[in-house]
Amino acid sequence: xxxxxxxxxxxxxxxxxxxxxxxxxxxxxxxxxxxxxxxxxxxxxxxxxxxxxxxxxxxxxxxxxxxxxxxxxxxxxxxxxxxxxxxxxxxxxxxxxxxxxxxxxxxxxxxxxxx
Length: 115
Known about the structure:
Elements: H1 4-15, H2 23-49, H3 55-89, H4 92-104, H5 106-112
Helix pairs in contact: 1-2, 2-3
């Protein structure tokens, strides 16, 4: 979140904005997000679950497995579910109330999640 989000925002401004529109923009944004976050998460998984001797092999295997699956799930399951929820269940007034509430209680939520 702290590493990939600013990086994706910066890269999106230079690589995607103004070049892609509609469906192609959605695919490009998803691919960019996965290409930035997947190597980071694969490295964390490899560091946590392997010995130092097998680190590179585990990293390559983890990345090769998670990157395509993450891309498919992100674009075809998570994206439509979030859009459906946002468009059908969250009204503009409700969304503003939710954002204000999150802003008021941000420190409590961060403590709850151990940050």
